[in-house]
């Protein structure tokens, strides 16, 4: 079945774009057809995703037998994506080139920016999450988007392609292309169908993210050029870059070590700026609350559920393997601190909000700060927790936005002060909200707990002495604060004496969740429960790639010895626990 | 009776210069005929078709040329090498697009003069690419300037255009004078006007001559006027605002092509002839400062504009700055690594496509005889003219540098060359090109602000006055061609990039563009 995997990946990537063109053109004539075609496209993509997961997961499980060998031997290993379109066997690098850069130095064929897609342990579940969240997004917009509906669904589908492309890309420039392409559809979705301050929100989101991404492009290109300068090979393929980087870092020449130290530092700072804006990390997070509040519900769901993961995924895929020294020396103190501050700051800001959507937006800052703590723990446990928490956050925050959207559709206000005792009237909605809030808080049996425990375990394991304990304490405090503001919101809005906002009687009676809305939220809740009860299959598929990254970084950690002892450091101590 | 050596020189000239200049001579003759015909008959479609036919015929003559086999060792005024071929193709293609842009935009009674001047301009552009010595280059540059003065003055429809024409004229002759002065110093230092002789003498001498440094500065200053580099850019916003859309389009594309073609042609002889590898030569610093200033001034002042033509003028200045980054990198790289000259030419092509397209859409959007003036005039175009708005959105996104557009591919190549130049730097001056690349990235982000504002106004605002589309088929054809070019160069630029690379590689100076 793996023979069909490349085709399935291409279909998964291309179907939304084709559907977007059809929706935009046909929907102009027949408005109701737009949402039907969009729904069909999303469901088809979900089916393709199911097949992809079914095929790929066993292969990834089987790779876990390599893990014991990764620790302790000096072989250079790199990412091994499968299902690569344009490659002879689906595993070798692709031969489809987009732009051949003519290089004057002879001896190597012209370097290619290639159309290099693939699936491996890191991106499989993120791809599944993206396609999974598209279905609720289309369903929640079913009745609320009336004007220019065909354009709206077309932009949503193009956004889906952009997000999938980022996760599937294994070429640096292709990654960047899709990373930037997600800006355009979301700019229009927020700017046309958003709330009162939508134009400013769209503009701030676009410009902030673009500015960061341009600096990231400099960092990525700088790294590629530096590797070209030292090895003579100009390549943009991520697995090859990781391999070449490890080879370069093992050269014992002091001049080379100095060179790579400087280059890694500069490139790390440049790359992480753009990714940090996307995550969002503490000082550069200011675009997020505005964008979330003003976006229509589906826009918020996709923005929080998937787009924020682009940043954290980029850290794991690009920063950690490519600039490991800089990550250890500068990344852990800088980003660890910013993430910790973000957790507390985000939680406190969330607690002080009166608008439910803004509260959830700030909670995203807190949750993703926590996720970044896990990633920068730089060990398998922390990285696994970070990856898992990305999925969990997508589900729980996506669910929160969906439910807030359903509440808003009925009463047209999001202020907590306007509501009280909703649970008495809207029982199903209240049940769903309580479950999603518990998932976000991290109650055992739900998905949040697994991710949070893994991250805390990973952070406590960091070899930075007291700092590890402080970071873990901050993270745990963030969890407590999270419970505080979410339960406060639940108490104020859903429980207590009944006091609902005025509802326009011309719009019909306020009903509990309709069938469509149940179809929107039940899959999300089911996924939360499933991951909470049985996370092992999901964790098992990521282990090989997580072990690879942890090994790359920890080898550098163990090699931070004085210069004269470098020659004596034959093999690293067992880095994987 | 002439001695044999003289006869030989005469026959060499006949073969190498006059034979190579046949397409341009044909264009000049056609222009004269159109001038004469215009006194008899005043019909713009007739003269436009005549001009189009002449352009196509001239291109066919150029394509069919057989360059003489021994041109590399001859000391003639024109050279048929690959770079010249590239500039020829760009000049004719740009000429055809400008022709379509002008087709319905000129008054009937002066249409013949318009199109004839355009033909002479294209002839001048092609000659700049083929120039092999300083005098021919100067002649070719003047052959571009003089029709431009006439074109700017022809509409004669009020104070504004006349003021713009006078401004351009005065500044242009001043810059030509400075350029010629610089050329004269180069002749004084090296004793020859021929480009390959100059490069040989300069490599033998090594750098360090004061006169030569002054000459370089003067030449760069003279050419910087055309590419609207910063201390010489002040005319651009006023002139763009004063003239019509199509003339502004021509001003933003043709002089840039001429200026950068001249700079690249002079490069191996003057700018990167004789400096030590790794060190930071003063010419590199000169281009560095020019690039940084131009980008910054162009983008920062563009943020403040409300008039569309001034905005596009500042955008044109900023993009000239980006191309200067490539030139600065080229001066450092000198044929090693990922060279900057490829990036400059690719960006020229991309820039021409997106800027001509943007001006063409603005032309297509006007109602009656009223040009689209301020940015508020664009409100609501997204609903009224969906296809044109989509095209303008594509061009604006390409100007920002979003992926899948030509602008992104161009910026990527420029960043690659700048960072590659960074690697070649010696110890003391490290970080210089990385800083330039950083300035470029920040400027691109700043520029995105005012381009995005236009997109927002088109799509996110409602229209305040009704718009009728008064455009004919030529303008829409230009828009369509530019859209196709922008997308093609953005999604699959390989062919164009390798073609440009083959044209500008240093060894290409010895290979005719039609090498068998």
Q: Quick one: biggest sheet of chain A?
A: 2 strands, antiparallel
The helix count of chain B comes to 20
Poorly predicted tracts of residues of chain A: 561-577
| Gap between N and C termini of chain B | 38 Å
Give the topology string of chain A: H per helix, E per strand: HHHEEHHHHHHHHHHHHHHHHHH
Characterize the quaternary organization of these chains: heterodimer
Strand order of the largest sheet of chain A: 1-2
Count of alpha and pi helical runs of chain A: 21
Separation of the first and last Cα atoms of chain A: 35 Å
Record the SSE blueprint.
The complex is a heterodimer of chains A (577) and B (516).
Chain A: H1 5-29, H2 31-63, H3 67-70, E1 97-101, E2 111-114, H4 124-140, H5 149-168, H6 172-181, H7 183-193, H8 198-231, H9 238-249, H10 254-278, H11 287-294, H12 297-322, H13 324-351, H14 356-375, H15 380-411, H16 422-425, H17 427-441, H18 447-460, H19 466-494, H20 515-533, H21 536-558
Antiparallel strand pairs in A: 1-2
Helix pairs in contact in A: 1-2, 1-5, 2-4, 2-5, 2-21, 4-5, 4-12, 4-15, 4-20, 5-6, 5-7, 5-12, 6-8, 7-8, 8-9, 8-10, 8-11, 10-12, 10-13, 11-12, 11-14, 12-14, 12-15, 13-14, 13-19, 13-21, 14-15, 14-18, 14-19, 15-17, 15-18, 15-20, 15-21, 17-19, 17-20, 18-19, 18-20
Chain B: H1 4-18, H2 22-40, H3 44-64, H4 82-102, H5 111-130, H6 134-153, H7 159-190, H8 195-205, H9 210-226, H10 235-242, H11 245-271, H12 282-302, H13 308-333, H14 340-364, H15 381-384, H16 386-400, H17 406-423, H18 432-460, H19 473-491, H20 494-504
